[in-house]
Amino acid sequence: MTLEVTAIAQQRLFAIWKRIRDESSQERADRVEERLLRRAEELIDQPLKGPPEPFLAELNGSHRYLLLGRYKIIYRIDGTTIHVTDFFDTKQHPSRMRG
User: Which CATH architecture has domain 2-89?
Assistant: First the structure.
């Protein structure tokens, strides 16, 4: 399995990093970003690790998620590729989730 982080997911991860940097410090932002990416890499060995994402069920993309603190890592599997489609802050309304 290979892991691909989509452009939209990269933008969302940067937004999370920027918010944490602005509210706390760059060091903390770097740690959170690193932890989110490491958590996503766990999917390479266990792609079905996360449960289905109910808020994206209507997309029929079989989206799943992993949690890390208050963040969801949204992903879907296509053949041998795991596509991370969003890094989602669960303090937002689910309608803002991207699949």
Answer: 2-Layer Sandwich (3.30)
Task: Give the tokens for residue 84.
Answer: 């991370």
Q: What is the pLDDT of residues 9-35, one digit of tens each?
A: 999 999 999 999 999 999 999 999 999
Q: 15-43 burial by CB neighbour count: b if 16+ within 10 A, else e?
A: ebbeebbeeeeeeebeebbeebeebbeeb
75 near 85, Cβ under 8 Å? yes
In single-letter form, the type of residue at position 51 comes to: P
In which residue are the tokens 């992993």 written?
Answer: 66
Task: Please name every residue paired with 89 in a beta bridge, in sequence order, or none if there are none.
Answer: 71
Q: What is the pLDDT of residues 57-94, one digit of tens each?
A: 888 769 999 999 999 999 999 999 999 999 999 887 66
Sign of CA dihedral 47, 51, 54, 55: negative
Where do the structural domains in the chain lie, given as residue ranges? 2-89
- Those residues whose C-beta lies under 8 Å from the C-beta of residue 96, and which sit 6 or more positions away, are 88
